[in-house]
User: What shape does this take?
Amino acid sequence: MADKMMTADEAVSRLRSGMTLGIGGWGSRRKPMALVRALLRSDVTDLTLVSCGGPDVGMLAAAGRVRRLVTAFVTLDSVPLEPNYRAARESGSLELTEVDEAMFLWGLRAAAHRLPFLPVRAGIGSDVLRPGSGLRTVTSPYEDGEVFVAMPALRLDAALVHLNRADRRGNGQYLGPDPYFDDLFCEAAAEAYVSCERVVDTAELTKAAAVQTLLVKRHTVTGVIEAPSGAHFTSCDPDYARDDAFQKHYATTPWPRFAERFLGGDERAYRAAVRSWREADR
Amino acid sequence: MSRSPSRAPGAPAAPPSRAEYCVIACAEAWRGAGEILASPMGTVPSVGARLARLTFAPDLLLTDGEALLIGADGTVEGWLPYRQHLALVAGGRRHVMMGASQLDRFGNQNISRIGGGSPPRRQLLGVRGAPVNTLNNPTSYWVPRHSRRVFVEKVDMVCGVGYDNAARHPATARFHDLRRVVSDLGVFDFGTPDGSMRLVSVHPGVTVREVREATGFPLAVPEEVPCTREPTEEELLLIREVIDPAGLRGREVPEGAGR
Assistant: This one.
């Protein structure tokens, strides 16, 4: 039986510059931040990110690792606009393929189903379809003759997601109210890395929670990473809420200073730096 | 003017604030909507949707702002994670009231960026679900500070589809339906022959001239412009004591601020 346990650094060492990388979660919710921090410690760069964007996008953009972003939005939720993302966009260093939320979902579904595209009634008449977007339309072959956006499959070289629990084989469980699109990210990717708050025995997954919480199936997972507080400072319901005070600090601190203070070492050093910030600065 | 949430029995209620007229105007967007999802974005539309549900639109569905459908008293009655929310949009049984960084005379809306070139002058949120919303279910807009910066001749990026763009794609846009725009100055719709914006009512204390001066395009104005209707006593009580006792609506639309 395959044991897929690895460290965050081992997972990231399997990624290459230039990859198309899907990042799960949504905005500032259940983002695989420990994996993003590992990515920031590596020299992987020139990435195309596919993400319902939050601080994952902001941090990787601030560190100059992102060439292109495919998204419908980037937000910190309690801070509506992501400052590092905005700075990267306004300086022209970050290309954007902007799609609607439904187009994004349909694109992941197309990739998961190995389809080249899926038709979606979204985007027509709006500027997501402007010249240069690369998006094309498709006409219904039936009597209605309607025209839709042919949303291309969002195929991923790799996906990073964070869940509440997983077993060593890659069965992943969410315990909060929303699965977001994490299963689809894994299904759309050639390789998927699942970090989780706690690795448990398979039998334990369904002891206290319904079987419907088993979101990610092991045949779509390459590596499992145990990362307690691995979504910090985004939310990871019901294990913890978003750390809004720290997120505000992130959003108001110049990136070099933030990176130096919190991201210079490994994950343990990060947690220690956050603890000392909490004691000293609040 | 200070207002305490509860007043002594028999004491006269404070007159409606501007924010409360805005709440009423937003609530009216969902009158007669039936058993559909109301998706309000922003404080005033959220108070308005809950008011509609507690009074004249009892069958509305509402969420907790995340993944749960909740009853008037907060009881969970269903599950609506993002992926199902997007399926519900495609099915059309929803009326969303979105914000707008820019809105033009045909109802094209922008929440993505300021500046049409590359790079953008200001990067904003992104298109979010505005394209799918406007092609699939009734859509209204809420603008807490009516100004020429928001009401522009031409938006820098079309996120929400307006009537001129919808007219170019009649088959795909067969469910396109912009219902109303509510601002801190008044209520607007697109009930003109060419689908351009029209003034429907001004909030008490606002003049038509004030609205015209704060709008960056020619606005259709009927000869008689009524005032936004008065809240009933029951509605005022619900707004002040049940739905928004902390007065968050007044933060979005401060009384007499900035004009």
